[in-house]
Amino acid sequence: MADLTTSWLGLELSSPFVVSASPLTRDPAAIALAVEAGAGAVVMYSLFEEQLVHEQLAAHRFLDARLDADAEARSFLPDVDVFALDATPYVQQLERLRARVDVPIVASLNGTTPGGWTTYARKLEAAGASALELNLYEVATSPLESGATVEDRQLAVVAAVVAEVDIPVTVKLSPFYASVPAFVRRLEHAGARGVTVFNRFYQPDVDLEHLDVDRRLVASTSAELPLRLHALAVLAPTTTISLGCTGGVHTGLDAAKAILCGAHVVAVASALLMHGPRHVGVLKDELAAWLVSKGYRSSAEARAVMDLRSAPDPHAWERLNYARMLDGWRERPIG
Ligand SMILES: Cc1cc2nc3c(=O)[nH]c(=O)nc-3n(C[C@H](O)[C@H](O)[C@H](O)COP(=O)(O)O)c2cc1C
Questions:
Q1: d(Cα 117, Cα 276) in Å, to the nearest integer?
Q2: Residue 325 domain-assigned?
Q3: Residue 94 domain-assigned?
Q4: Is 44 a pocket residue for ligand 1 (Cβ < 6 Å)?
């Protein structure tokens, strides 16, 4: 059996398979099964900036009854059906998971604007989180805010969270930056100890019957993996912080690809929601068998073997591959 241990964010993990943030982490029994099957760490579902801001506003309302009478002001607040507007259940769930399993539990904060909500990072550390994942999910909607301004704002959030805690902070990114490696370099300078690529960009469809937005969440497929592989191969030679891959890992072979491109861990959600938490064991066995078949004694040995380190000019290499791929269409027709 190949050695699957990995080091991520300074934490020593028994395997590179991480249970990614999802409703599965609301169920301690399911998490225990995933860990038993070989998960090396668990990232909890997110605590959202919007929830925490509301909790703070609620405290203000207690002091200022007038605001409560103002229906318009209240309408700006998140829908109570969507969010638990109190961080206490989250902290309690973190403590429950900690008591149940013996792998690092990573708490997840999800937000994009600096503000008092980032101080909650300290509560999560106090409750026993081994690390924090900060999810910077957002979709730019204002023509008045440039990409550079968005990045500066996000970096301010990262720096604020990092300043609150001693545990490592990793950042979950979306793919939409003009230069992912340059932004990751800035994240590193802001104190991030890792990045995970990439958030899935939830693309609501249009319901033509009801002229409404169709928000159904569709599980990923392995087809989403190459975008991540490409980013990992670009990032691995340019940064020393930990690299996580999320999005499209459905088999042990998908995990092998991510590791070859530079991932320290792969964070899996859809496959576990579809096949159950024990599926981690299947992924682990497939990865181990592939490593052995290629003569690797450990996943660490295979890590980053296929990153862009050996390309003398990665930018030119990317352009050439792009041109070759378009040209190759004649030999391997589409469809
Ligand atoms: C139902 C569901 C809920 C999720 N909730 C969160 C969340 O609270 N915070 C977060 O950072 N990611 C969340 N994610 C994203 C996953 O953690 C993961 O990054 C993404 O689904 C890509 O991995 P996958 O291809 O294995 O599904 C969620 C995903 C699903 C499917």
A1: 34
A2: no
A3: yes
A4: no
Return d(Cα 19, Cα 16) in angstroms, integer.
Answer: 10
308 touches 234 (CB < 8 A): yes
Write the CATH number for 39: 3.20.20.70
Residue whose CB lies within 8 A of the most ligand 1 atoms, among 124, 169, 170, 200, for a mutation test: 200
Q: Containing domain of residue 62, as a range?
A: 6-309
- For the Cβ of 268 lying below 6 angstroms from any atom of ligand 1, the answer is yes
Count of structural domains, the chain: 1
Interval between CA 311 and ligand 1 midpoint (Å): 33
Atom of ligand 1 nearest to the CA of 43: 17
pLDDT in tens, 258-269: 999 999 999 999
Cis ω for the linkage preceding 62 (within 30 of 0):
no
Task: List, for residues 66-95, the tens digit of each pLDDT value.
Answer: 444 444 444 444 444 455 667 899 999 999
Q: Are 76 and 140 in contact (CB under 8 A)?
A: no
Q: What is the pTM of this model?
A: 0.91
Domain for residue 152, yes or no?
Answer: yes
Is any ligand 1 atom within 6 A of the Cβ of residue 172?
Answer: yes
Per-residue model confidence as pLDDT tens digits over 121-146 = 999 999 999 999 999 999 999 999 99
Residue 335, in any domain of the structure: no
